[in-house]
DNA sequence: TTAGGGTTAG
């Protein structure tokens, strides 16, 4: 026997933390049910195909609540639900972020015998994947008797969504071996997998396949631009853009702009930016270019565009704006932007904490972190953990730094990685706590955290400050082994030898650098000059990034 | 009816 009760869903997606069962205990006047009983009665055509079309319209307009509520009514009053009913409903289940709804819909599909049909089964692969349930998504795929190209594409996307690009590539190789049909969707996913895997040759092969098939669609070209620019081949990416015969769209331009920024082609990014109507994603990339290039002049102009075009409520874009001001040394402006972000996410909080930390305002950074905890709607992540530690380090707040190093683990279950250890080791070294530093280092190794070059550099620097010759030489050896071409490491080592009076080693090191062709670039500051008539105005833009 | 391309903190 099989008993199933579908429950109505009244609240929008973000409130779906409440279980469906809890929802039923709420009183009706607290809720907004777009499809109530009377409205359902008023729907003129109540045959199943009209109702299915209505479900599709609601979900296409992004109204998942109404889609689910209409489905609930249909379940009560219709006896002929079919596969066309469930495809929009499964989408709604995911949009409502409530896995219980998905399970209810899936159960009903099994009861009605539509779960084995190819289209709703593919929708199940997708729904479970979007819920984060890779196992259920894969099960749905392997339960299929016959799999069409859309089903294969859905499972490829599922693997990519779960950070398994190699699985996606392996599956594509299987598809080719079995001479299965593939489509532009398939090639897009495989290109994305190649990008994640940094698999240049494989990606080139897909590019060749696209050329042979003559499928230079804008979506595929965007995936190619993204692939090449992520692998440092920005000229190839620009060539794709130049030779594209299809109409270029915003997403393609955005991909090219972010690719130029990623490859430090800031002027090119700005030129492409000027070709399009501003959109939030392009502006975010452009602001990122200003941050990297310390170009507050352009950054301020983008801020103006944001205000004029009403992008100011976009959290992600505002985070980039905040970061731009902070990186250009304008901490007050960064703070003003932060205050105006109405829906602050973990990146907003972390960026501002880090901005205070970098500018030496450790106490303000800590106060802000406390505020973040009090507001209680955003949880810190490993980057927040690092920003707080770094803020303590920059301001010499060793006691607080120690407290937070353990608190983040105990209260939030965040596991420190090499970057966290490097930061804490640096802090302890500067404070002369060399024995605590070593016991921390040994504890880290015992926990199987592999020391990164940043860890060895922090250890070496601590040994220089504390004149610990033996352990300093040990750290130096490891550091140079790990990064033999990084000039900064040789400078650290040279400073270490100088501190312990080994001037012969300093000279030896310099000649080794010369012999190996390793040069340390000089430091500097950017000053932006603007000409107004015959007068110049200077803008101090902070430190450059070499 | 199902599947695809772009963005922020370290």
Question: Could you characterize what this model shows?
Answer:
Helix content is 68%, strand content 2%. It has 546 residues and is mainly α. A two-stranded antiparallel sheet has the order 1-2. The longest helix has 15 residues, at 398-412. The termini are far apart. Mean pLDDT is 89; it is low at 10-32 and 542-546. It binds one DNA strand of 10 nucleotides through helix 5, helix 7, helix 9, helix 11 and helix 13.
Describe this structure in a few short sentences:
The protein has 546 residues and is mainly α.
Sequence-ordered SSE layout with sheet pairings:
Elements: H1 20-23, H2 37-42, H3 48-60, H4 64-77, H5 83-95, H6 99-112, H7 118-131, H8 134-142, H9 149-161, H10 165-177, H11 184-197, H12 200-213, H13 218-230, H14 234-243, H15 250-262, H16 266-273, H17 280-293, H18 296-308, H19 315-327, H20 331-340, H21 346-358, H22 362-375, H23 382-394, H24 398-412, H25 418-430, H26 434-446, H27 453-465, H28 469-482, H29 487-499, H30 503-516, E1 527-532, E2 535-540
Antiparallel strand pairs: 1-2
Helix pairs in contact: 3-4, 3-5, 4-5, 5-6, 5-7, 7-8, 7-9, 8-9, 9-10, 9-11, 10-11, 11-12, 11-13, 12-13, 13-14, 13-15, 14-15, 15-16, 15-17, 16-17, 17-18, 17-19, 19-20, 19-21, 20-21, 21-22, 21-23, 22-23, 23-24, 23-25, 24-25, 25-26, 25-27, 27-28, 27-29, 28-29, 29-30
The structure holds one DNA strand of 10 nucleotides.
